[in-house]
Model the fold of this input.
Amino acid sequence: MEEENPVDEALKGRNWKPYAYCSSGEKTRGREAYVDCAKRLGEARCLRRSVLLEALASDLPSGTIRFGSRLLAITMDPETSYPILRLHDGSVIKTKVVIGCDGVNSEVANFLDLRPPRMSPTCNVRGFTIYPDGHGYPHDFVTINHNRVFLGRVPLDKKSMIENSEPDLLSLTGTRYRAPWDVLFGSFRKGTVTVAGDAMHVMGPFLGQGGSAALEDAIVLARCLAPHMTSPDQGELSREIIGGALDSYITERRMRLVRLSAKTYIIGSLLESTSLVVKLICILMIILFFRDRFGHTRYDCGRL
Ligand SMILES: Cc1cc2nc3c(=O)[nH]c(=O)nc-3n(C[C@H](O)[C@H](O)[C@H](O)COP(=O)(O)OP(=O)(O)OC[C@H]3O[C@@H](n4cnc5c(N)ncnc54)[C@H](O)[C@@H]3O)c2cc1C
Done:
């Protein structure tokens, strides 16, 4: 006899429907499936943030990373026009290039005079449930939509996962985003200073693409800068050469980010708004510009 799917079990007797479901990267079910792994229309992968950070850090020469260095302000050296960083412990770093990956409250974005991210009415509650003997469930992913509450669970379980979650580990955060038109018109470079990741394009969690887009930024930025770093005249690396490389990075990223931000914004507005007119406009925009709902996954930022 076929074992009952935990999604079906969790949804039994409720007027809830699975909005997204990807099972172990292989099979998928449901009319509402958002990520269809079987047809290779995008994929949902769970990635522990610490594992990603450790993998990235392990490729750097030891001593490259300096912890506990909170940036307070950036100024331009009046003589060299290169940036000077002032840290909270009073130390000062003179550098040639600054790439601000300092998230939604970015000091580097402030230095670039970018408009501050806007508040969205959606709040995020995140929590952990500890299973001392292991949970025994496969690494599945589901989000459920009910009465304007969107519930995501990784891996899959019944509602006991929520009831048994650790109250001390619950976190409630607001959602902020950089409006698509601010991404379109924002000036992301001043001298040899630029931004990447959320500092550049924070978006709501409706597509789950913010972190992935930050990784794309890193690849494109490295590709634009690397040829100059390895050229024989690297000792002469000038502001103009660095500035040109940063401009190439911004140009290559901008429209990809505008489309991602716009799609996220429209889906967010559709889900958040109570106005039928707004919902109708959002649906029209989706039909006009984002008819292919998996379109954003068919993007290749290229190799390093
Ligand atoms: C509820 C929710 C769900 C999400 N789901 C997904 C998903 O499924 N998939 C996905 O791809 N993305 C998702 N995202 C988005 C993703 O989390 C972010 O896009 C990603 O973390 C951005 O990475 P970042 O390195 O740019 O910024 P952060 O991860 O915010 O890192 C910024 C770093 O800068 C440091 N910092 C901040 N200020 C300073 C300072 N002044 N000086 C020095 N350091 C500083 C911080 O300590 C931090 O280490 C989600 C976001 C939310 C809120």
